[in-house]
Amino acid sequence: MQTDVDALLIGGGIMSATLATLLQEVEPNWDIQVIERLDKVAEESSDPWNNAGTGHSALCELNYTPQKSDGSVDIAKAVTVNEQFQVTRQFWAHLVESGRLPSPQAFIQPTPHMSFVWGADNVEYLRRRHAALSAHPLFAGMEFSDDPEVIGRWAPLLVADRDPNQPIAATYSAAGSDVDFGRLTELLLDAFTERSGNLVLGTEALDLRKLPDGRWAVLVRNRASGEKAVIRARFVFVGAGGYSLRLLQKAGIDEIRGYGGFPVSGEFLRTSRTDVVSRHHAKVYGLAAVGAPPMSVPHLDTRVVEGRTSLMFGPYAGWTPRFLKTGSLTDLFASIKPDNLLPMIKVGLQNLSLVVYLVKQLLSSPKRKFADLREFYADAEPGDWEKVTAGQRVQVIRPDGVLQFGTEVITAADGSIVGLLGASPGASTAAPIMLDVLRDCFADRWPDWQQTLFKAMPHSAEELIADPELAHAVLTSTAEVLGLVPPVAKEPPTGLGEAERAAGVPV
């Protein structure tokens, strides 16, 4: 372990792995150190069974496309998430082509993305969503159907033994993917250490203090031996999952004042039975229950982990005061400070429906939970499925008392320390988020770094939106490098027709 470094990255997940890789791209001579409190990287949020592994591109996630009071569908969030994922895909493709990553099949698989709903009102909503999204160049080729026979060809389990009189509808995109972010993290950090990066496992950060010379002194401890040491760093990134909040609080930066965290755990059902898995090759997202948080959107997912294909269904919400799956029962209480107490109380009062939902989930019987699966897959048998405990998510409570379901970057005014709070769709948007970190924290170096970064990610999100032909070319080229299905080659619509306008699609 080095005691004086240019950059110290706390946490061995996908975010730190991505930032470490980017820093080595632009400053190959820097001393960069990554520390991880566990004995293996990617054991918390980046672990494949601790997250949904979707490769969030908003092709199927209905929580990114809410229906407004006038019946129209707001696609702004979906477009933003898709744009960010395309930047991440460019970065991965660059690393594959440059030999920094091995065969992409080691971490990413082509997997269709579907949205699936039932009930007349929901069918109409999905029709409007499809009309709005398919008009956008990043969603070209997305199909819609309310015909059970067509849906059955896309995903046979969804229609097996279903009431033929029940209205159903689905969208289908062959351009989706399944990402093993745990394996990707391992591969990135393997390449990082091969290029003289320093990775230290089993070592946790205890405290942070700003030194008179502008560096940070970080007190760390080896969890096996108990031995403590101080690492001095010119730049610190706190990517420690749920523990980021506490570490930023200990750093004492003004920017973290008022922020709190609300931990949410979860469970999934999983099966690896060949006769079941072979009949479903897709990630299928439905609509969240009334009052449920966005991250509780039910989905029946194909997952490929360590070469083995499984199906997982969930999530079922749970609760624990831990901020990490391997954390302490005192985590939540230790994070409560005088400056964030009022925002946390405000969030509790304004989100009573969430509290009610969590209580119902905690009291829900295994039989009731399995009934949720049977709304997707009517023939499911309890004996075929096992329970999997997912990772912890610490949702961001902002100083204004708003509960945020997303990723929040907290940057000190001088750029010497930055931390990441929140959750989904973080992993899929790691590259653009880390680009923002580099730009905001290293404004003096950013102009010199841009040319190198441009080679890795030549097309920004804004360019892809403005130029449909470029968007199609970029999606096609990255799909070819990563072994994914390229988008359908077609002229994107120049506008929406009268039928879509009548349906309330915003233009």
Automatic annotation (TrEMBL):
Q: Which UniProt keywords apply?
A: FAD, Flavoprotein, Oxidoreductase, Tricarboxylic acid cycle
Pathway participation = Carbohydrate metabolism; tricarboxylic acid cycle; oxaloacetate from (S)-malate (quinone route): step 1/1
Q: Can you provide one Gene Ontology molecular function annotated for this UniProt record?
A: (S)-2-hydroxyglutarate dehydrogenase activity
What organism does this protein naturally occur in? Naumannella halotolerans
SUPFAM superfamilies assigned to the protein according to its UniProt record, in alphabetical order: FAD/NAD(P)-binding domain
**Kind of enzyme, top EC level?**
oxidoreductase
Q: Which NCBIfam families match?
A: mal_quin_oxido, PRK05257.1-1, PRK05257.1-4, PRK05257.2-1, PRK05257.3-2
Query: By what name is this protein known?
Result: Probable malate:quinone oxidoreductase
UniProt similarity note: Belongs to the MQO family.
Q: Which reaction equations make up its catalytic activity?
A: (S)-malate + a quinone = a quinol + oxaloacetate
Family matches, as Gene3D superfamilies: D-Amino Acid Oxidase, subunit A, domain 2, FAD/NAD(P)-binding domain
Q: What is its EC number?
A: 1.1.5.4
> Domain of life of the organism in this record?
Bacteria
